[in-house]
TrEMBL record:
Pathway noted in the entry: Amino-acid biosynthesis; L-lysine biosynthesis via DAP pathway; DL-2,6-diaminopimelate from LL-2,6-diaminopimelate: step 1/1
Record-level GO BP terms: lysine biosynthetic process via diaminopimelate
Catalytic activity line of the entry: (2S,6S)-2,6-diaminopimelate = meso-2,6-diaminopimelate
Name of protein: Diaminopimelate epimerase
EC number(s) given by UniProt: 5.1.1.7
Length: 283
């Protein structure tokens, strides 16, 4: 089948975007994997499928499939690219677009400077809802919230955990450039304490308003940036007393601005969204 696609990136996290607003589009996990393959396909961290509104109070639906072919609940960098895509394709004139995802409705807003701000909803910290199996672990309280001592690769690491609709585990490190991303990332991503696997963030606190972050993503490996990962790392850093409500996150692919005013508030993420090229592929 011939498939038209748009290649996009948000802070270096890259996507194949498919327009399923005019006709339904269901590919097999193998076809998604092929699309995402950097040699046999187009190449991407995730595939984004833009669909029609499933309800009158939203404008579109948006599905996310990781490079490994697995469908997931949320994607922050993808939400910004989604908003730019629907505007550029003439699918919407709105600057604030309501879109439903598997983890609820989010609302990207296009800014005059070309960046996009997204209300990513409220974070979730209860282990069972992440999901994270905390059985037998005593949370090590620090500040007013906890890190969990998780055994991995023969050591115990203090993990902070949260959900932004998708699961995240965050480990504080002194220097992200020397962090054990490829040693601990894969082992934590598929650790038994995360029944649906997990995105693994390595967080370096530069100041109370500036951090550096690398993320080994569930179903994709290390990416140049992870939007939900930046949200999770900042809210966990705030809860642990390390960070103020407005933080600049330096990732390997670019900068994201994250704001969270605390419990009961949504997380606001601002960052770039860029169209790289359009194409067609026989899949
Ligand atoms: N790998 C993630 C999905 C993509 C999230 C990331 N690319 C972002 O920008 O939030 C997961 O399995 O939950």
């Amino acid at each position: 089948m011939k498939l038209r696609f748009t290649k996009m990136q948000g802070a270096g996290n890259d996507f194949v975007v498919l327009d399923a607003t005019r006709q339904p589009l269901t590919l097999t996990p193998e076809q998604y994997r092929r699309l995402a393959d950097r040699r046999f396909g187009v190449g991407a961290d995730q595939i984004l499928i833009v669909g029609p509104a499933p309800a009158p109070d939203v404008d579109f639906s948006y599905r996310i499939v990781n490079a490994d072919g697995g469908e997931v609940e949320q994607c922050g960098n993808g939400a910004r690219c989604f908003a730019k895509f629907v505007r550029d394709q003439g699918l919407s004139e709105k600057s604030a677009i309501r879109v439903s995802t598997h983890s609820g409705v989010i609302e990207p807003r296009l800014q005059p400077d070309g960046r996009v701000t997204v209300n990513m909803g409220a974070p979730v910290f209860e282990p069972a809802r992440i999901p994270f199996d905390a059985a037998g672990l005593a949370a090590q309280p620090q500040g007013d919230h906890a890190q969990w001592p998780v055994e991995v690769a023969g050591q115990t690491v203090p993990l902070a955990v949260a959900s932004m609709g998708n699961p995240h585990a965050v480990l504080r490190v002194d220097d992200v450039d020397r962090a054990p991303v490829h040693e601990l990332g894969p082992k934590l991503e598929s650790h038994t304490r995360f029944p649906r696997r997990v995105n693994v963030g390595f967080l370096q606190v530069v100041s109370r308003s500036q951090v550096r972050l690398r993320v080994y993503e569930r179903g994709a490996g290390e990416t140049l940036a992870c939007g939900t990962g930046a949200c999770a790392a900042v809210v966990l850093g705030i809860r642990l007393g390390w960070l103020d409500p407005w933080v600049e996150v330096e990732t390997r692919g670019g900068r994201l601005g994250i704001e969270w005013q605390g419990a009961g508030h949504p997380v606001w993420m601002t960052g770039p969204a860029v169209t790289v090229f359009e194409g067609e592929i026989e899949i």
